[in-house]
């Protein structure tokens, strides 16, 4: 397998040895464009969500209503980024290796364009019209559908907003790592001044 990859593997931002539709827990980080504080600000150790921050929060919690076999772990909206754990319950082989990757925007851009250029189907409920990734169940399609939904409704409300062109995903290897990441997310607001995304 390694010889095959060394000879034929095309450079990619994804982990080529992993199918991102497989069962597993994934640590997701998504930043705003230029790390602007579109989601609100932190004062007195508490996150105060802006209108865009409320959209980011609400639509994340709607993900299980629009993707199959998905559960949500810890989640937090910060001023210029968010962290969340996606848990996919699809069949997958056990792989002990780990990788940390940056995911391209291509799939997400297609989702965003389809949302902008497709009229709402009157036969669908408002909740069903928010996400358009019903046909796939991968980390990329789920996250892309989520980003597109937030963008669509921010524009509908004429709110200044933009996502960074990539998002970061990390395959969580085991229970110990899961707990460490969970604790990091849950204390992120309190440790904002130590965060690598910290800025004015």
Structure description:
- It contains five helices and seven strands.
- By secondary structure, the chain is of the alpha+beta class.
- It has one domain: Transposase IS200-like (Alpha-Beta Plaits, 2-Layer Sandwich).
- The strands form two sheets. It has a five-stranded antiparallel sheet with strand order 4-5-1-7-6, with helices on both faces.
- Strand 4 (70-77) and strand 5 (81-88) form a beta hairpin.
- Helix 2 runs antiparallel to helix 4 (139-156) and helix 3 (106-117) crosses helix 4 (139-156).
- The longest helix has 18 residues, at 139-156.
- The protein starts with a helix and ends in a 14-residue tail after the last helix.
- Residues 1-14, 16-20 and 92-129 have low confidence and may be disordered.
């Amino acid at each position: 397998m390694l010889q095959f990859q060394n000879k034929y593997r095309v450079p990619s931002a994804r982990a080529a040895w992993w199918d991102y539709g497989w069962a597993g827990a994934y640590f997701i980080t998504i930043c705003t464009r230029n790390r602007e504080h579109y989601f609100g600000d932190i004062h007195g150790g508490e996150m105060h969500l802006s209108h865009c921050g409320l959209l980011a929060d609400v639509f994340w919690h709607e993900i299980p209503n629009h993707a199959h076999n998905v559960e949500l772990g810890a989640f937090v909206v910060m001023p210029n980024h968010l962290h969340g754990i996606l848990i996919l319950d699809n069949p997958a082989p056990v792989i002990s290796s780990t990788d940390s990757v940056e995911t391209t925007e291509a799939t997400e851009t297609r989702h965003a364009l389809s949302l902008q250029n497709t009229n709402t189907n009157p036969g669908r409920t408002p909740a069903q019209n928010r996400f358009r990734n019903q046909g796939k169940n991968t980390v990329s399609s789920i996250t892309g559908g989520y980003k597109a939904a937030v963008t669509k409704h921010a524009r509908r409300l004429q709110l200044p907003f933009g996502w960074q062109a990539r998002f970061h995903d990390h395959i969580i290897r085991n229970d110990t790592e899961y707990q460490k990441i969970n604790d990091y997310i849950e204390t992120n607001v309190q440790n904002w001044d130590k965060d690598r995304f910290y800025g004015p």
